[in-house]
Amino acid sequence: MSLPHTAPVVETQDLILRGYREDDFEAFAAFGASDRAQFVGGPQTRWDSWRAFLAGIGHWHLRGYGMWMVEHRETGGIAGRVGIINQDGWEEPELGWHIYEGFEGRGFAYQACVAARSYAASHFGMNGLVSHIDAANTRSVRLAERLGAAFERDSELLGKPCQVWRHPKEKAC
Predict the structure, then answer these.
(1) Model pTM greater than 0.70?
(2) 126-160 per-position pLDDT tens digit
């Protein structure tokens, strides 16, 4: 049996967006266990991180799109994850991002999001995506604004309040 859909590789000046590798898990688990994960369901145990890691792989196989691992081109370090997620019960796909410790504040989240958003529009037919952001997550709110997203409405996601930010549609080539 073969599984459909593997994550395509998308490259930017500083980053490589690619599929998951088992050796990415240590960076993934470290982020999940940190206070930095508070806005995405963390901190969490190593076991919960393993399940989330496998879910990220499964999302690509089930939906044909998902979150990429973000590799820093120069160092090979895992800088985070970015991509399109659409969990069971969600109204529509979301552009999401997690930038790992040591890689924030250098424009990598912006660079990765622009690349993922553009790829989603041109290859997945997803244009004008949303991002669900906790209002207290001021760094993500600032990034959404920098990406040109606009506050659309207050909402709830997984039983918690959030804001829905709508990204601009990509222009046709």
Answers:
(1) yes
(2) 999 999 999 999 999 999 999 999 999 999 988 88
Q: Is the CB of residue 102 less than 8 Å from the CB of residue 27? A: no
Structure tokens at 157: 């996601």
Pairing of strands 160-166, 150-157: antiparallel
Q: How far is CA 23 from CA 17, 61, 78, 133, in A?
A: 15, 19, 10, 29
| Interval 36-49: pLDDT, tens | 877 777 798 999 99
Q: In terms of DSSP H, where are the helices of 64-171?
A: 108-123, 138-146
77 CB-contact burial (10 Å; exposed 0-12 / middle 13-18 / buried 19+): middle
Q: What angle do CA 107, 150, 167 make, to 5 degrees?
A: 65
SS percent in the chain: helix, strand, coil, step 5:
35, 25, 40
